[in-house]
Amino acid sequence: LGLNCPYCRGTPCLFRDMYLQRPAKRGHAQPPKPVIIVPPFVARRIDLPTGGRLSLDVIMVGDYTKSFMQLVLGMIAFGQAGIGPDRHYGGNRFEVTDVKCLESGGYVLQNSKIDSDKFASKDLKEVEPLSGSEAILSFKTPFTGSFTSSTVNNVIRLIRHRLIQFVNEYGTGETIPEVNVDGTVTLRETHHHILNRRSSRSDKNFFHGWTGSIAIGLSGLPEEARWLLACASILGMGPDSSFGAGFVNIFKPFEPNRLT
After folding, report:
1. Are the CB atoms for 211 and 142 separated by under 8 Å?
2. Strand, coil or helix: what is 136?
3. What's phi and psi for 179, nearest 5 deg?
4. How far apart are CA 235 and CA 59, in angstroms?
5. 3-class state of residue 249 by DSSP
6. Which residues contact 251 (CB under 8 A, 6 or more apart)?
7. What average pLDDT does this structure show over 27-42?
8. CA separation for the pair 19, 21 (Å, rounded)
9. In angstroms, what CA-CA distances link 246 with 21, 41, 73, 238?
């Protein structure tokens, strides 16, 4: 029924806002998707054997968190039907074995049982600013933007820009304060990737991405800047969030397994 569907007009609708083009509340570009699947990135094509497992991160924003159970049930049905052309021959089927809420730490789905009480959400205003003197940002999916200069100010600008897109479309539309700071970042390692894609709007069938990690000095940064850096651990930075691009892990030096 499209954008004029009478059943969900004026309320969040996963199908409508995930698959149908619609105008953004602000600006002219297509709005970011309210549900983002962040896949594991291994920088090469892999074939999973029967019984193989993949772990995905799923981020839902705004009122779409209320549709979390519909998403879980939809993914279960999706797996039963299969993906790609091979689904017609009984191939490419998968099973959703468990779903863990990273906010509550509980399992929403485990041992074929659903417990919706284990689902919890978080307001970004509640995110604690980063502490310490230095933080490492490690890209778990490729960053598809460009660094005009290796400065803390540029990194914070990329984080703030992504945050503004989600706040304008799915939040209150309030102003995210601009932060100007001094400081440089250290490129610890970088890897260039050519990422294949299919676009129905242009002839472009690839884009460039980078993975690796950067070190950012936190000493002297105001609380607003530290808060924006902490928000990157949830929403990432840069363009192409709908592709799952630009998501990061943040940890302290010498503590690679401890996320902040």
Report:
1. yes
2. strand
3. -120, 125
4. 8
5. strand
6. 135, 136, 138, 257, 258, 259, 260
7. 84
8. 7
9. 23, 11, 27, 6
**DSSP secondary structure code for residue 149 in this structure:** S
Distance of alpha carbon 248 from the chain centroid: 9
Q: Tell me: pLDDT of 12 over 80.
A: no
Length of the chain measured in residues:
260
Three-class SS state of 217: strand
> CA 247 to CA 159: how far, in whole Å?
10
Give pLDDT tens digits for 74-122: 899 999 999 888 888 888 899 999 999 999 999 999 999 999 999 999 9
CA distance linking residue 17 with residue 22, whole number of Å: 8
- Rg of the Cα atoms in the chain: 19
> 129-161 pLDDT, tens per residue?
999 999 999 999 999 887 655 789 999 999 999
